[in-house]
Each structure stands twice: as structure tokens, then as C-alpha cells.
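Regression test attached.
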Amino acid sequence: MSVQEKYVSLLELANQNGTTYELSEGNEGTLVVTGTAPSAEAKQQLWDEYARLDPEFRSGDLILNIQTAESAAAGGGMHTYTVESGDNLTKIAGKYGIQWKAIWDHNRDILKDPDKIYPGQELKIPM
Amino acid sequence: MKIKFITVFTIAIALVLSACGKSDADLQKAVTEKLTAASVTGVAVAVKDGVATLTGEVADAAAKKKAEDTAKTVEGIKSVVNSTTLKPIPVATPAAADPALTGKIDQDLKKAGCTGASVSVTGGKVTVTGEVPNAKYAECVQVIMQSGITGIDNQLKKGK
């Protein structure tokens, strides 16, 4: 039985509840389902079905990456990092394996000086 | 004697006709129409002796099942041989380089209150270790799967 056949009820549910999705093949034949659900409720239905098929999500043969239409519109490919006490741009950049300047470039609208950041500030991290 | 033979013969013919119902050509048309109505595309139908054989390439397993289920609902179809094939799917690309994915997941886990979990990413595949409260478990797995990874080895423990 192929991975798709194993999770066919999940795909059927996505078709029924208005979730749009694309399939791709990840590491070692993992089925990657990337999609957008029309509501948080529709997304939860999919996760409930996943839990029914694989109660602890341990098979490693499926990655369910579903956003809601709302979060997809807001996110736009950027990740948000919340500044903590003791952080600086170099240190934050190190956590993502990128250059501090990349963060600076994406946050010039909220930062006046790359050396001055404050705990609680939300920085956009390019992904 | 001759009349009796004709009567039996006529009844036999009538029985055969009623059992057959629609011809294979009619059934083929009916199945095709029903598939179109159900928005199943790319499937060709052949019918022989009431058995429908479906061929062609479909988008995924859900479409394959839908084609079969739809064909079965056509009256007069005895069984369905589903020989449709699944469209090959593209290779997944991780959303970012491994260190960036690790950083992103770490931060998202922290935000979601999954502090006991730790991750390492190699070639887009994440290995999850540590322990999170039972009530948080599903949410923590969700956060990880939504990060743009392409593989997972989930060793995360459920605590209390």
C-alpha cells in the first residue's frame, strides 16, 4: 500500500472541507502535504483524521503542513522572532545561520540602529 | 409441442434481456457522464459484460478512489477494475537551509510553549527529541510539521 493510499481518507476529507493542497515527496518517500484550509476548524478536522490514522504521528511517512487561509495571508514567507534580553542581531542571525545584515535589511522600518534592539520587539526573519 | 417450445424460448429470451439491462455501450456512456459530473478528469472507461475498467492518470489517491466509487454507483455496473495510475509527485524542497529551519522551529516551539522539545535538522529532515506535556503533544508536532521540513523522525516523548 502506498503512502497516499494509507492517508487517502485524509486527502478525501481535504477535498470535502475545501482545503487546497499539493503533494510532494520528501526524504525517504515521506508524503508532504502542503496546503491551505479555509478555516481553523477545517484544519483541525484534518489533524483529527491524521490522529485517527497515526495516533502519535510517529510513522514518519507523512508531513501535514496546513495553514489557515487567514495565517497564509498574514505570514507571507516571513518568520517572526521575538527579541529576548541579551540578544543582538548577530546572535539572532546565528540561530538561523544567516547574516545579521539580512535581518537588519528586513527590519529597517522598526529599527533605527542595528545595535539597539529591545526585548519583546518582533523582528521579521527572511526564510 | 411446438407452441410449448416457443413459449419456453420466449420466456428465456425475456429473462436474458432483463438480466442484461443496458448494453455495454450504454453503460460506458453512463459511467463517463457520471465521472464528468463528479469532476473526475483524465479517466478513460471501457465496459465489457458489465465490468468497467478505468484507465488513465489521476491527480492522487483520493481522485483514484473517487473515480472507482463513482463508477460503482452506475446501475448495471457489476464491478470496477481500477487501473488508473497516480500522477508522479514532485520532490519536496525544504523551506529554508537546515540552520534557518532549526532556528525557526526552536522559536515557534518556544512561542507555543513546547520548551521541552528539541530539534536538529539535516537535509530538511528533522529529528525531534525531548519531552512535552501530554496535553501539548499534538500542538508541538503541528508546529514542527508546519515549518517547511521534508522529513521527520519523531522521538518526542509525552510527559504528564
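Expected vs. actual: identical. The mean pLDDT of chain B is 91.
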